[in-house]
Write a structure and sequence with these properties.
21 strands, 36% helix, 571 residues, six-stranded mixed β-sheet, alpha/beta
Length: 571
Amino acid sequence: MTTPAELLDSWLEIDPDPATRQAIEAERHRSEWVQAQFGSVLRFGTAGMRAPTGPGPARMNRVVVRIAARAVGAELIAADFGSRGAVVGFDARPGSADMAFDAARLLAAMGIPTAIIDGPAPTPLLARQLLARSAGAALMVTASHNPSDDNGLKVYWADGTQIRPPLDQRIEARMDLSSLPADGDLAARHEVESLDVRSVIAEYVGAAVRRPVFDAQGQPVDPNDVPPIVYTAMCGVGSQTLGHAFATAGLPPPIYVEHQRQPDGTFPGLPFPNPEEPGTLDDAMALATDHDVDLVLANDPDADRLAVAVRDRDGAWHRLSGDELGVLLCDWLIGLHDRGRAGKTLISASSVVSGRMVEALCAARGVAHHRTLTGFKWIMEPRLTHPGARWVFGYEEALGYSVTDAVLDKDGIAAAVEFARLAGALAARGIGPLERLDELATEVGLHVTGAASIRADTEDIAAAMASLRADPPRTIAEYPVTRITDWLDPGAPLPADLVELELARATAGNSSHDPETQVRICIRPSGTEPKAKIYLEAVSPNPDDIRAERLRLQTLLDTIAGEVSVLFEPA
Protein backbone atom coordinates (compact mmCIF):
# COMPACT_ATOMS: atom_id res chain seq x y z
CA MET A 1 0.00 0.00 0.00
CA THR A 2 1.35 3.42 -1.00
CA THR A 3 2.38 5.60 1.95
CA PRO A 4 1.67 9.36 2.04
CA ALA A 5 5.38 10.03 1.52
CA GLU A 6 5.54 7.75 -1.55
CA LEU A 7 2.39 9.36 -2.97
CA LEU A 8 3.99 12.77 -2.46
CA ASP A 9 6.94 11.73 -4.63
CA SER A 10 4.65 10.45 -7.39
CA TRP A 11 2.57 13.63 -7.19
CA LEU A 12 5.59 15.88 -7.47
CA GLU A 13 6.61 14.19 -10.71
CA ILE A 14 3.36 14.97 -12.58
CA ASP A 15 1.90 18.06 -10.83
CA PRO A 16 1.41 20.69 -13.57
CA ASP A 17 1.04 23.63 -11.14
CA PRO A 18 4.28 25.42 -10.14
CA ALA A 19 2.66 26.81 -6.98
CA THR A 20 1.66 23.43 -5.58
CA ARG A 21 4.99 21.86 -6.57
CA GLN A 22 6.76 24.65 -4.69
CA ALA A 23 4.57 24.04 -1.64
CA ILE A 24 5.45 20.33 -1.69
CA GLU A 25 9.17 21.05 -1.86
CA ALA A 26 8.91 23.55 0.98
CA GLU A 27 6.86 21.39 3.35
CA ARG A 28 7.77 17.77 2.57
CA HIS A 29 10.04 17.50 5.59
CA ARG A 30 7.06 18.06 7.95
CA SER A 31 5.39 14.72 8.60
CA GLU A 32 2.21 16.33 9.96
CA TRP A 33 1.82 18.38 6.77
CA VAL A 34 2.46 15.34 4.55
CA GLN A 35 -0.18 13.35 6.43
CA ALA A 36 -2.73 16.18 6.24
CA GLN A 37 -2.22 16.72 2.50
CA PHE A 38 -1.54 13.17 1.28
CA GLY A 39 -3.05 10.90 3.94
CA SER A 40 -6.67 11.05 2.76
CA VAL A 41 -8.72 11.60 -0.39
CA LEU A 42 -11.51 14.12 -1.04
CA ARG A 43 -15.00 12.63 -1.17
CA PHE A 44 -18.30 13.85 -2.53
CA GLY A 45 -20.42 15.63 0.07
CA THR A 46 -23.82 17.30 -0.08
CA ALA A 47 -22.87 19.28 -3.19
CA GLY A 48 -19.76 17.75 -4.71
CA MET A 49 -16.19 18.05 -3.44
CA ARG A 50 -14.94 21.18 -1.71
CA ALA A 51 -11.71 21.95 0.12
CA PRO A 52 -8.95 24.55 0.48
CA THR A 53 -6.66 24.65 -2.53
CA GLY A 54 -3.24 23.08 -2.15
CA PRO A 55 -1.26 19.98 -3.12
CA GLY A 56 -2.28 16.41 -2.44
CA PRO A 57 -5.44 14.30 -2.71
CA ALA A 58 -6.98 15.90 0.42
CA ARG A 59 -7.03 19.36 -1.18
CA MET A 60 -8.43 20.90 -4.35
CA ASN A 61 -5.90 21.16 -7.19
CA ARG A 62 -5.43 20.31 -10.84
CA VAL A 63 -4.31 16.73 -10.17
CA VAL A 64 -7.38 15.98 -8.01
CA VAL A 65 -9.66 17.36 -10.72
CA ARG A 66 -7.90 15.20 -13.32
CA ILE A 67 -8.32 12.12 -11.11
CA ALA A 68 -12.01 12.89 -10.58
CA ALA A 69 -12.60 13.58 -14.28
CA ARG A 70 -10.94 10.29 -15.23
CA ALA A 71 -13.23 8.49 -12.77
CA VAL A 72 -16.31 10.24 -14.16
CA GLY A 73 -15.22 9.34 -17.68
CA ALA A 74 -14.72 5.68 -16.77
CA GLU A 75 -18.19 5.55 -15.21
CA LEU A 76 -19.70 7.22 -18.29
CA ILE A 77 -18.13 4.61 -20.54
CA ALA A 78 -19.19 1.77 -18.24
CA ALA A 79 -22.79 3.07 -18.29
CA ASP A 80 -22.67 3.33 -22.09
CA PHE A 81 -23.12 7.12 -21.87
CA GLY A 82 -19.72 8.03 -23.27
CA SER A 83 -21.07 8.85 -26.72
CA ARG A 84 -23.47 11.38 -25.21
CA GLY A 85 -20.48 13.47 -24.21
CA ALA A 86 -19.76 15.81 -21.33
CA VAL A 87 -19.81 19.54 -20.71
CA VAL A 88 -17.56 21.49 -18.33
CA GLY A 89 -17.86 24.91 -16.69
CA PHE A 90 -15.99 27.01 -14.15
CA ASP A 91 -16.38 30.03 -11.89
CA ALA A 92 -14.08 33.04 -11.47
CA ARG A 93 -11.90 31.74 -8.66
CA PRO A 94 -8.13 31.69 -9.19
CA GLY A 95 -7.21 28.41 -10.84
CA SER A 96 -10.76 27.36 -11.75
CA ALA A 97 -10.20 27.75 -15.50
CA ASP A 98 -7.04 25.60 -15.45
CA MET A 99 -8.82 22.87 -13.48
CA ALA A 100 -11.79 22.95 -15.84
CA PHE A 101 -9.68 22.74 -19.00
CA ASP A 102 -7.70 19.85 -17.47
CA ALA A 103 -10.96 17.98 -16.82
CA ALA A 104 -12.29 18.66 -20.32
CA ARG A 105 -9.04 17.64 -22.02
CA LEU A 106 -8.79 14.44 -19.99
CA LEU A 107 -12.36 13.43 -20.86
CA ALA A 108 -11.72 14.19 -24.52
CA ALA A 109 -8.59 12.02 -24.44
CA MET A 110 -10.78 9.15 -23.21
CA GLY A 111 -12.83 9.43 -26.40
CA ILE A 112 -15.73 11.29 -24.77
CA PRO A 113 -16.92 14.28 -26.86
CA THR A 114 -16.45 17.19 -24.47
CA ALA A 115 -17.39 20.88 -24.57
CA ILE A 116 -16.34 23.66 -22.22
CA ILE A 117 -17.98 27.04 -21.60
CA ASP A 118 -15.26 29.47 -22.64
CA GLY A 119 -15.54 31.88 -19.70
CA PRO A 120 -16.63 32.04 -16.06
CA ALA A 121 -20.35 31.26 -15.86
CA PRO A 122 -23.08 30.62 -13.28
CA THR A 123 -23.56 27.02 -12.22
CA PRO A 124 -27.21 26.96 -13.45
CA LEU A 125 -25.96 27.60 -17.00
CA LEU A 126 -23.87 24.45 -16.90
CA ALA A 127 -26.78 22.43 -15.48
CA ARG A 128 -28.93 23.79 -18.29
CA GLN A 129 -26.36 22.89 -20.95
CA LEU A 130 -26.33 19.30 -19.71
CA LEU A 131 -30.06 19.04 -20.48
CA ALA A 132 -29.93 21.08 -23.68
CA ARG A 133 -27.20 18.87 -25.13
CA SER A 134 -28.56 15.59 -23.67
CA ALA A 135 -25.03 15.03 -22.39
CA GLY A 136 -24.00 12.14 -20.18
CA ALA A 137 -22.34 14.26 -17.50
CA ALA A 138 -21.35 17.79 -16.55
CA LEU A 139 -18.51 18.99 -14.33
CA MET A 140 -18.50 22.43 -12.69
CA VAL A 141 -15.35 23.75 -11.03
CA THR A 142 -16.63 26.00 -8.25
CA ALA A 143 -16.60 26.35 -4.48
CA SER A 144 -19.88 28.28 -4.59
CA HIS A 145 -20.00 30.59 -1.53
CA ASN A 146 -16.89 29.23 0.26
CA PRO A 147 -13.93 31.53 1.03
CA SER A 148 -11.55 32.49 -1.75
CA ASP A 149 -8.90 29.96 -0.67
CA ASP A 150 -11.30 27.09 -1.40
CA ASN A 151 -12.32 25.43 -4.62
CA GLY A 152 -14.51 22.51 -5.54
CA LEU A 153 -16.09 20.27 -8.15
CA LYS A 154 -19.78 19.56 -8.75
CA VAL A 155 -20.70 16.59 -10.93
CA TYR A 156 -24.03 16.16 -12.74
CA TRP A 157 -25.28 13.02 -14.46
CA ALA A 158 -27.38 12.23 -17.51
CA ASP A 159 -30.68 12.77 -15.67
CA GLY A 160 -29.75 16.45 -15.16
CA THR A 161 -29.19 16.33 -11.40
CA GLN A 162 -26.11 16.22 -9.21
CA ILE A 163 -24.85 12.72 -8.61
CA ARG A 164 -26.43 10.74 -5.77
CA PRO A 165 -25.53 7.47 -4.06
CA PRO A 166 -24.61 4.89 -5.17
CA LEU A 167 -23.32 6.63 -8.31
CA ASP A 168 -21.04 8.98 -6.36
CA GLN A 169 -19.62 5.99 -4.51
CA ARG A 170 -18.89 4.19 -7.80
CA ILE A 171 -17.08 7.28 -9.09
CA GLU A 172 -15.10 7.60 -5.85
CA ALA A 173 -14.09 3.93 -6.16
CA ARG A 174 -12.61 4.73 -9.59
CA MET A 175 -10.46 7.60 -8.24
CA ASP A 176 -7.21 5.67 -8.54
CA LEU A 177 -4.12 7.19 -6.92
CA SER A 178 -1.78 4.43 -8.05
CA SER A 179 -1.54 5.94 -11.52
CA LEU A 180 -1.71 9.73 -11.53
CA PRO A 181 -2.79 11.46 -14.77
CA ALA A 182 -0.01 13.51 -16.32
CA ASP A 183 0.01 16.10 -19.12
CA GLY A 184 0.46 13.32 -21.67
CA ASP A 185 -2.93 11.90 -20.70
CA LEU A 186 -4.75 15.05 -21.83
CA ALA A 187 -6.05 15.81 -25.31
CA ALA A 188 -4.99 19.00 -27.07
CA ARG A 189 -7.14 22.05 -26.38
CA HIS A 190 -8.48 22.15 -29.92
CA GLU A 191 -10.00 18.70 -29.38
CA VAL A 192 -12.39 20.21 -26.82
CA GLU A 193 -15.42 22.06 -28.19
CA SER A 194 -15.59 25.68 -27.04
CA LEU A 195 -19.01 27.09 -26.08
CA ASP A 196 -19.37 30.85 -26.30
CA VAL A 197 -20.58 32.03 -22.89
CA ARG A 198 -22.92 34.59 -24.50
CA SER A 199 -24.68 31.87 -26.48
CA VAL A 200 -24.92 29.73 -23.37
CA ILE A 201 -26.53 32.65 -21.49
CA ALA A 202 -29.02 33.19 -24.31
CA GLU A 203 -30.00 29.51 -24.40
CA TYR A 204 -30.43 29.40 -20.64
CA VAL A 205 -32.56 32.54 -20.49
CA GLY A 206 -34.73 31.34 -23.36
CA ALA A 207 -35.46 28.11 -21.48
CA ALA A 208 -35.63 29.30 -17.86
CA VAL A 209 -37.39 32.69 -18.01
CA ARG A 210 -41.16 32.59 -18.48
CA ARG A 211 -42.96 35.16 -20.61
CA PRO A 212 -45.58 36.46 -20.39
CA VAL A 213 -46.50 36.03 -16.72
CA PHE A 214 -49.86 36.40 -15.00
CA ASP A 215 -50.63 36.71 -11.31
CA ALA A 216 -52.89 34.38 -9.31
CA GLN A 217 -55.97 36.37 -10.43
CA GLY A 218 -55.10 35.89 -14.09
CA GLN A 219 -53.95 39.46 -14.59
CA PRO A 220 -50.74 40.15 -16.52
CA VAL A 221 -47.88 41.35 -14.34
CA ASP A 222 -47.06 44.90 -15.37
CA PRO A 223 -43.28 45.49 -15.35
CA ASN A 224 -44.06 49.08 -14.36
CA ASP A 225 -45.32 47.74 -11.02
CA VAL A 226 -41.95 46.15 -10.23
CA PRO A 227 -40.24 48.29 -7.58
CA PRO A 228 -36.67 49.50 -8.08
CA ILE A 229 -34.13 46.82 -7.17
CA VAL A 230 -30.51 46.93 -6.02
CA TYR A 231 -28.56 43.84 -7.05
CA THR A 232 -25.18 42.43 -6.06
CA ALA A 233 -23.35 39.50 -7.60
CA MET A 234 -20.99 39.45 -4.59
CA CYS A 235 -17.97 39.54 -6.93
CA GLY A 236 -19.28 36.39 -8.58
CA VAL A 237 -20.44 35.49 -12.07
CA GLY A 238 -24.15 36.38 -11.93
CA SER A 239 -24.38 39.96 -13.23
CA GLN A 240 -24.24 39.36 -16.98
CA THR A 241 -26.78 36.54 -16.91
CA LEU A 242 -29.13 38.33 -14.52
CA GLY A 243 -29.08 41.46 -16.67
CA HIS A 244 -29.98 39.41 -19.74
CA ALA A 245 -32.70 37.56 -17.83
CA PHE A 246 -34.27 40.78 -16.53
CA ALA A 247 -34.25 42.31 -20.01
CA THR A 248 -35.84 39.21 -21.54
CA ALA A 249 -38.52 39.21 -18.84
CA GLY A 250 -39.28 42.87 -19.54
CA LEU A 251 -38.13 43.89 -16.07
CA PRO A 252 -36.41 47.21 -15.44
CA PRO A 253 -32.65 46.79 -15.01
CA PRO A 254 -31.47 46.70 -11.41
CA ILE A 255 -29.11 49.15 -9.77
CA TYR A 256 -25.81 47.28 -9.49
CA VAL A 257 -23.40 47.38 -6.59
CA GLU A 258 -20.61 48.30 -8.99
CA HIS A 259 -17.61 47.23 -6.89
CA GLN A 260 -19.18 43.76 -6.52
CA ARG A 261 -20.51 43.51 -10.08
CA GLN A 262 -17.56 42.02 -11.97
CA PRO A 263 -16.21 38.53 -11.25
CA ASP A 264 -13.31 38.58 -8.79
CA GLY A 265 -12.54 35.27 -7.15
CA THR A 266 -10.52 36.93 -4.39
CA PHE A 267 -13.76 38.50 -3.09
CA PRO A 268 -12.34 41.78 -1.76
CA GLY A 269 -14.22 42.88 1.34
CA LEU A 270 -16.11 39.56 1.45
CA PRO A 271 -14.04 37.03 3.41
CA PHE A 272 -17.06 34.71 3.44
CA PRO A 273 -18.93 35.45 0.18
CA ASN A 274 -22.05 33.68 1.43
CA PRO A 275 -25.19 35.86 1.43
CA GLU A 276 -26.32 34.01 4.57
CA GLU A 277 -23.38 35.48 6.50
CA PRO A 278 -23.90 38.69 8.53
CA GLY A 279 -22.55 41.79 6.81
CA THR A 280 -22.38 40.42 3.27
CA LEU A 281 -25.36 42.51 2.09
CA ASP A 282 -24.36 45.68 3.93
CA ASP A 283 -22.97 47.44 0.85
CA ALA A 284 -26.07 46.58 -1.18
CA MET A 285 -28.41 47.78 1.57
CA ALA A 286 -26.42 51.01 1.96
CA LEU A 287 -26.66 51.66 -1.78
CA ALA A 288 -30.38 50.94 -1.68
CA THR A 289 -30.83 53.34 1.21
CA ASP A 290 -28.96 56.05 -0.70
CA HIS A 291 -31.29 55.53 -3.70
CA ASP A 292 -34.44 55.20 -1.57
CA VAL A 293 -34.89 51.63 -2.80
CA ASP A 294 -36.67 49.06 -0.61
CA LEU A 295 -35.59 45.79 -2.25
CA VAL A 296 -32.16 44.13 -2.50
CA LEU A 297 -31.42 40.93 -4.43
CA ALA A 298 -28.14 39.05 -4.17
CA ASN A 299 -26.67 35.98 -5.80
CA ASP A 300 -23.82 34.01 -4.30
CA PRO A 301 -20.57 33.78 -6.33
CA ASP A 302 -21.73 30.96 -8.66
CA ALA A 303 -25.29 32.41 -8.81
CA ASP A 304 -27.18 29.30 -7.80
CA ARG A 305 -28.50 30.90 -4.58
CA LEU A 306 -30.69 33.94 -4.03
CA ALA A 307 -30.81 36.25 -1.01
CA VAL A 308 -33.36 39.03 -0.51
CA ALA A 309 -33.54 42.00 1.86
CA VAL A 310 -36.53 44.33 2.13
CA ARG A 311 -37.30 47.44 4.14
CA ASP A 312 -40.29 47.39 6.42
CA ARG A 313 -42.79 50.21 6.91
CA ASP A 314 -40.51 51.75 9.55
CA GLY A 315 -37.58 51.86 7.15
CA ALA A 316 -35.58 49.08 8.85
CA TRP A 317 -33.92 46.44 6.71
CA HIS A 318 -35.11 42.83 7.03
CA ARG A 319 -33.12 40.00 5.46
CA LEU A 320 -35.64 37.37 4.47
CA SER A 321 -34.68 33.98 5.85
CA GLY A 322 -34.34 31.10 3.44
CA ASP A 323 -37.65 29.76 4.69
CA GLU A 324 -39.48 33.11 4.39
CA LEU A 325 -38.23 33.53 0.84
CA GLY A 326 -39.20 29.93 0.10
CA VAL A 327 -42.78 30.45 1.29
CA LEU A 328 -43.16 33.64 -0.76
CA LEU A 329 -41.84 32.03 -3.93
CA CYS A 330 -43.92 28.89 -3.43
CA ASP A 331 -47.09 30.94 -2.92
CA TRP A 332 -46.34 32.93 -6.09
CA LEU A 333 -45.52 29.91 -8.23
CA ILE A 334 -48.57 27.92 -7.15
CA GLY A 335 -50.64 30.87 -8.35
CA LEU A 336 -48.89 30.83 -11.73
CA HIS A 337 -49.32 27.08 -12.20
CA ASP A 338 -52.92 27.00 -10.99
CA ARG A 339 -54.01 28.81 -14.14
CA GLY A 340 -52.75 25.98 -16.34
CA ARG A 341 -53.23 23.00 -14.05
CA ALA A 342 -55.78 21.28 -16.35
CA GLY A 343 -56.10 18.28 -14.06
CA LYS A 344 -52.36 17.75 -13.70
CA THR A 345 -50.87 16.96 -10.32
CA LEU A 346 -48.66 19.78 -9.08
CA ILE A 347 -45.61 18.75 -7.04
CA SER A 348 -43.03 20.53 -4.91
CA ALA A 349 -40.22 19.50 -2.59
CA SER A 350 -38.08 20.79 0.25
CA SER A 351 -35.32 19.43 2.46
CA VAL A 352 -36.21 17.92 5.81
CA VAL A 353 -34.28 20.63 7.68
CA SER A 354 -36.23 23.41 5.98
CA GLY A 355 -39.31 24.90 7.63
CA ARG A 356 -42.67 23.22 7.24
CA MET A 357 -44.68 26.28 6.22
CA VAL A 358 -44.26 25.45 2.54
CA GLU A 359 -45.57 21.97 3.26
CA ALA A 360 -48.61 23.47 5.04
CA LEU A 361 -49.18 25.91 2.18
CA CYS A 362 -49.03 23.13 -0.41
CA ALA A 363 -51.50 21.05 1.60
CA ALA A 364 -53.90 23.99 1.68
CA ARG A 365 -53.56 24.55 -2.08
CA GLY A 366 -53.76 20.93 -3.24
CA VAL A 367 -50.10 20.59 -4.24
CA ALA A 368 -48.32 17.29 -3.51
CA HIS A 369 -45.27 18.08 -1.38
CA HIS A 370 -42.21 15.86 -0.87
CA ARG A 371 -39.68 16.19 1.96
CA THR A 372 -36.20 15.01 1.03
CA LEU A 373 -32.70 14.69 2.35
CA THR A 374 -30.55 17.83 2.38
CA GLY A 375 -29.10 18.87 -0.97
CA PHE A 376 -30.60 19.61 -4.35
CA LYS A 377 -29.55 16.25 -5.70
CA TRP A 378 -32.35 14.94 -3.45
CA ILE A 379 -34.76 17.88 -3.73
CA MET A 380 -35.00 17.43 -7.50
CA GLU A 381 -35.47 13.65 -7.30
CA PRO A 382 -39.32 13.88 -7.04
CA ARG A 383 -39.28 15.75 -10.34
CA LEU A 384 -37.64 12.68 -11.91
CA THR A 385 -39.78 10.07 -10.19
CA HIS A 386 -43.08 11.81 -11.07
CA PRO A 387 -42.65 12.59 -14.78
CA GLY A 388 -46.39 13.00 -15.35
CA ALA A 389 -46.73 15.72 -12.72
CA ARG A 390 -46.03 19.42 -13.13
CA TRP A 391 -43.06 20.72 -11.17
CA VAL A 392 -43.86 23.86 -9.19
CA PHE A 393 -41.09 24.56 -6.74
CA GLY A 394 -38.21 23.12 -4.75
CA TYR A 395 -36.13 24.69 -2.02
CA GLU A 396 -33.76 24.36 0.90
CA GLU A 397 -33.47 26.88 3.70
CA ALA A 398 -29.86 27.68 2.72
CA LEU A 399 -31.17 30.07 0.01
CA GLY A 400 -31.47 27.46 -2.74
CA TYR A 401 -34.56 27.58 -4.99
CA SER A 402 -35.85 25.78 -8.08
CA VAL A 403 -38.55 27.80 -9.84
CA THR A 404 -38.49 25.94 -13.18
CA ASP A 405 -37.52 22.48 -14.38
CA ALA A 406 -35.50 23.97 -17.23
CA VAL A 407 -32.64 23.48 -14.72
CA LEU A 408 -32.71 20.48 -12.39
CA ASP A 409 -30.76 22.19 -9.65
CA LYS A 410 -31.05 25.32 -7.55
CA ASP A 411 -30.99 28.48 -9.64
CA GLY A 412 -30.48 31.95 -8.21
CA ILE A 413 -30.96 33.76 -11.53
CA ALA A 414 -34.42 32.40 -12.41
CA ALA A 415 -35.44 32.76 -8.76
CA ALA A 416 -34.43 36.45 -8.85
CA VAL A 417 -36.62 37.03 -11.91
CA GLU A 418 -39.62 35.40 -10.22
CA PHE A 419 -39.10 37.34 -7.01
CA ALA A 420 -38.97 40.61 -8.93
CA ARG A 421 -42.27 39.73 -10.60
CA LEU A 422 -43.72 38.71 -7.24
CA ALA A 423 -42.67 42.05 -5.77
CA GLY A 424 -44.39 43.82 -8.66
CA ALA A 425 -47.64 41.89 -8.14
CA LEU A 426 -47.58 42.72 -4.42
CA ALA A 427 -46.82 46.38 -5.11
CA ALA A 428 -49.87 46.52 -7.38
CA ARG A 429 -51.89 45.48 -4.31
CA GLY A 430 -50.21 48.11 -2.16
CA ILE A 431 -48.35 45.65 0.05
CA GLY A 432 -44.85 44.23 0.32
CA PRO A 433 -43.29 40.81 1.01
CA LEU A 434 -43.51 41.16 4.80
CA GLU A 435 -47.23 41.91 4.66
CA ARG A 436 -47.75 38.91 2.39
CA LEU A 437 -45.97 36.71 4.94
CA ASP A 438 -48.46 37.90 7.56
CA GLU A 439 -51.35 37.03 5.26
CA LEU A 440 -49.97 33.53 4.71
CA ALA A 441 -49.46 33.05 8.45
CA THR A 442 -53.16 33.78 8.93
CA GLU A 443 -53.95 31.14 6.31
CA VAL A 444 -51.68 28.24 7.37
CA GLY A 445 -50.25 29.21 10.77
CA LEU A 446 -47.24 31.21 11.87
CA HIS A 447 -43.96 29.40 11.31
CA VAL A 448 -40.78 31.04 12.63
CA THR A 449 -37.46 29.40 11.81
CA GLY A 450 -33.88 29.99 12.82
CA ALA A 451 -30.47 28.45 12.42
CA ALA A 452 -27.11 28.33 14.12
CA SER A 453 -23.78 26.81 13.20
CA ILE A 454 -20.72 25.83 15.16
CA ARG A 455 -17.37 25.68 13.39
CA ALA A 456 -15.18 22.86 14.66
CA ASP A 457 -12.93 20.05 13.51
CA THR A 458 -14.73 17.21 11.77
CA GLU A 459 -13.64 14.79 14.50
CA ASP A 460 -15.00 17.05 17.26
CA ILE A 461 -18.34 17.37 15.46
CA ALA A 462 -18.58 13.60 15.04
CA ALA A 463 -17.84 13.13 18.75
CA ALA A 464 -20.51 15.67 19.72
CA MET A 465 -23.08 13.97 17.47
CA ALA A 466 -22.24 10.61 19.06
CA SER A 467 -22.64 12.12 22.53
CA LEU A 468 -25.99 13.65 21.55
CA ARG A 469 -27.23 10.26 20.39
CA ALA A 470 -25.98 8.48 23.51
CA ASP A 471 -27.29 11.02 26.02
CA PRO A 472 -29.85 13.39 24.49
CA PRO A 473 -31.18 16.29 26.58
CA ARG A 474 -34.44 15.74 28.43
CA THR A 475 -35.48 19.41 28.43
CA ILE A 476 -34.50 22.44 26.35
CA ALA A 477 -35.51 25.96 27.41
CA GLU A 478 -37.85 24.34 29.97
CA TYR A 479 -39.68 22.44 27.23
CA PRO A 480 -39.61 18.65 27.65
CA VAL A 481 -38.12 16.74 24.73
CA THR A 482 -40.89 14.34 23.84
CA ARG A 483 -39.61 12.78 20.64
CA ILE A 484 -36.16 12.02 19.26
CA THR A 485 -35.62 10.74 15.72
CA ASP A 486 -32.16 9.50 14.83
CA TRP A 487 -32.05 9.41 11.04
CA LEU A 488 -29.24 6.86 11.14
CA ASP A 489 -31.58 4.31 12.73
CA PRO A 490 -32.98 1.64 10.38
CA GLY A 491 -36.54 2.84 10.96
CA ALA A 492 -35.83 6.48 10.11
CA PRO A 493 -37.74 8.07 7.18
CA LEU A 494 -34.52 8.50 5.19
CA PRO A 495 -30.87 7.64 5.96
CA ALA A 496 -28.93 10.71 7.12
CA ASP A 497 -26.52 11.87 9.83
CA LEU A 498 -29.30 13.89 11.44
CA VAL A 499 -30.89 14.04 14.88
CA GLU A 500 -34.36 15.56 15.12
CA LEU A 501 -35.85 16.67 18.43
CA GLU A 502 -39.46 17.65 19.04
CA LEU A 503 -40.48 19.61 22.11
CA ALA A 504 -43.77 19.18 23.91
CA ARG A 505 -46.49 21.76 23.81
CA ALA A 506 -46.83 23.36 27.23
CA THR A 507 -49.80 22.30 29.33
CA ALA A 508 -52.73 24.69 29.61
CA GLY A 509 -51.88 25.29 33.26
CA ASN A 510 -48.45 26.72 32.45
CA SER A 511 -49.07 30.40 31.87
CA SER A 512 -45.46 31.13 30.87
CA HIS A 513 -45.84 29.37 27.51
CA ASP A 514 -48.43 29.32 24.76
CA PRO A 515 -50.00 25.83 24.90
CA GLU A 516 -50.27 25.79 21.10
CA THR A 517 -46.56 26.32 20.39
CA GLN A 518 -44.78 23.48 18.58
CA VAL A 519 -40.98 23.32 18.35
CA ARG A 520 -38.71 21.21 16.15
CA ILE A 521 -34.90 21.05 16.18
CA CYS A 522 -32.70 19.36 13.56
CA ILE A 523 -28.97 18.89 14.13
CA ARG A 524 -26.48 17.59 11.57
CA PRO A 525 -22.88 18.01 10.38
CA SER A 526 -22.50 20.23 7.33
CA GLY A 527 -21.91 18.38 4.09
CA THR A 528 -19.72 21.14 2.61
CA GLU A 529 -17.88 22.82 5.52
CA PRO A 530 -16.33 21.81 8.86
CA LYS A 531 -19.22 22.84 11.08
CA ALA A 532 -22.33 21.52 12.80
CA LYS A 533 -25.67 23.00 11.73
CA ILE A 534 -28.72 23.50 13.93
CA TYR A 535 -32.13 24.20 12.42
CA LEU A 536 -35.04 25.40 14.55
CA GLU A 537 -38.73 25.92 13.91
CA ALA A 538 -41.54 27.14 16.18
CA VAL A 539 -45.15 27.02 15.02
CA SER A 540 -48.16 28.88 16.40
CA PRO A 541 -51.21 27.56 14.50
CA ASN A 542 -53.71 30.33 15.32
CA PRO A 543 -51.95 33.51 16.44
CA ASP A 544 -54.12 36.46 17.48
CA ASP A 545 -51.40 39.08 17.00
CA ILE A 546 -49.03 37.84 14.29
CA ARG A 547 -46.30 40.42 14.77
CA ALA A 548 -46.19 40.07 18.56
CA GLU A 549 -46.27 36.30 18.30
CA ARG A 550 -43.46 36.32 15.74
CA LEU A 551 -41.25 38.24 18.16
CA ARG A 552 -42.10 35.84 20.98
CA LEU A 553 -41.27 32.77 18.91
CA GLN A 554 -38.02 34.32 17.67
CA THR A 555 -36.95 34.98 21.25
CA LEU A 556 -37.80 31.40 22.13
CA LEU A 557 -35.72 30.07 19.22
CA ASP A 558 -32.77 32.27 20.19
CA THR A 559 -32.86 30.78 23.68
CA ILE A 560 -33.08 27.24 22.32
CA ALA A 561 -30.22 27.85 19.87
CA GLY A 562 -28.00 28.98 22.73
CA GLU A 563 -28.77 25.89 24.80
CA VAL A 564 -28.28 23.48 21.89
CA SER A 565 -24.99 25.11 20.84
CA VAL A 566 -23.54 24.26 24.26
CA LEU A 567 -23.75 20.59 23.27
CA PHE A 568 -20.93 21.21 20.78
CA GLU A 569 -18.62 23.13 23.10
CA PRO A 570 -15.38 21.33 24.05
CA ALA A 571 -15.64 19.48 27.33
